[in-house]
Amino acid sequence: MKTVTNGGLPVPWSRRWRLSVARMAKRRLQRLSEGQALFTAGGPSMAPAALPGLRPAVAPPGSRFGAWSAPPWHGLPLAVSGAVAMFVVQPPADLWPLAWLAPIPWLLLVTQPRLSGWRAWGGVWCGGFLYWLLAIHWLRLPHPPATAIGWVLLSAYLGCYLPLFVWAARRLVHHWKWPLVPAAAVAWVAMDLVRSEFLGGFTFAGIGHTQWRWTTFIQIADAVGAVGVGGIVMAGAAAILATVAGRAKGRVLLCEALPAAILVTVTLAYGSMRLATAPVPTQKPLDVLIVQGSIDTEMKHDPDAAADVLAHYDKLTIAGLAEESALPDLIVWPETMWRYGLMEIDATQTLPAAVLDEMLGPDDVGELASARQARGRAAISAQRLAALATYARRYGTNWIVGLDRQRISSTVPAGYQAFNAALVLNPDGRPIACYDKMYPVMFGEYVPLADRLPFLYSLTPLPGGLTAGTEPVAVDIAGYGVAPTICYETALPGAMRSIVRRLAATGRRPAAIVNLTNDGWFWGSSELDMHLVAAIFRAVEVRTPILVAANTGFSAAIDGSGKLLAQGPRRETATLRVSVRPDGRWSPWLTAGNLPLGMTLAVVAILVLEWLVGTRLAPRWASGRQ
Hints:
Blueprint: E1 5-6, E2 9-10, H1 13-42, E3 55-56, E4 68-69, H2 76-88, H3 104-111, H4 118-135, H5 146-158, H6 161-175, H7 180-197, H8 215-218, H9 221-245, H10 250-276, E5 286-292, H11 306-322, E6 330-332, E7 338-345, H12 353-360, H13 369-395, E8 398-408, E9 416-425, E10 431-436, E11 475-477, E12 480-486, H14 493-505, E13 512-518, H15 527-542, E14 546-551, E15 556-558, E16 564-567, E17 574-580, H16 588-592, H17 598-613, H18 620-623
Parallel strand pairs: 5-6, 6-8, 7-8, 12-13, 13-14
Antiparallel strand pairs: 1-2, 3-4, 5-17, 8-9, 9-10, 11-12, 14-15, 15-16
């Protein structure tokens, strides 16, 4: 191992860090002064007329992007213009074809010769903060003002990914001498990967999601996920910028435009191949009735509204069944639309005598106390199920319904566990499966550590937290395996992949995934669009049809190629009678998940280490430096 020396004497480890930082600072000051000298020497006569939002500047020697740059003292104008452009390609404006141009202002931050100082990077963060404030404005709606505070805080956190992206891409372009196209794609994918996994992940409003209507293009999601699709769009935007800024020079066309064109061509060829190999149905499809009511969720906390909600959904169900003579194989209600929760009492709990007398009547035969306690617990559970059984028998077919489930137990600090559940009943009204949501939403459905410190819930609008389920469920419906999921589980790529893989490992890979969700929290906002698009990408990634039953919309049927076969209205009632045909194809995503894209994180990790130690760590073939 090489010994670090100073004047022939070994340098202690305590001084090596200070020497590295000093060398790094010296090089940065030197580069800063050289950049200023270049700009001063060039003068305004060397630059063509300025474009709006840009100013003329002399590019450093060897620059591939001409002489255009943003003001070196401030990143705010380009960051904000990029935020607005990126917002309008998302719902509600939804100008999705412009997604191939929207990132260009942010990419100009990457290509300009100098971007330094707290004002410049603070301006870049402000652009990211603004974008997320606009994109997820619906987060303020469920519990104002508490969720409004969460909206601002989450936007502030997500806004950090823009300066991180710009910094990483700039290091690749200006220090490693990478072309803009791979630099932008690698940096963007790395940041999106972290965003989709860190602290549970947040995947809405990704640039790749804008392309969901282009079915051929998004087939590549079964190999690289929605994050990878976003990386391809970013590569296309970078190629457009590099081609225009480089005035279509030969080297630019070779290093920027050609690789991006090849990438998009391969993506479309792969998509065409996957669509052409979609399975041809050979058996009777699964016949499903999806019931979409329109109940604003503020009513959920009104105990008197439970009967109204039940009557609302029952009326829609009866009307939907009456539209066709044959019964469907399955009826699906959205999340928690059965407001009378189930209750399970742990065997360690002792019921009061008054409760036992109310449930069982007086004990006139001298029944053993343990037996009477067991009968009392069973009677309480059966009482909650009896009403469900009555409705299931009236419908005459299988029924998946969303409800709350409680387990009373002295073994947990709070004294009970609450589950967000999907109960499956057969035509006789007998429960045949129950799925407990495995991936509850942090701060939306639980507070970290509050299971041990219940007082934390007093600091939030939540009355209590959900306990995560432990096992996925696949139930046989008319010969097809159907796996229930709940709410934002379709927004989590890793969650859906894990559910399908775990079921497939036991020989129960689902033919269809049913998602029960209540989007009545968001009053018909663009959250409905983003949630639906997330389900479309999950269907492609795991090559499994997804049925969505959503209160206030959007209920939908999506096939294994991501085609939207049926869709309910926004904030209105509807019943969708859909035919579901299994896909069954395996996908590279199911095998490897994010692992191939993880190489982008390795590249960014090397960039960070280089910046910290002030010296090159990447091999010359990777960095392109001599």
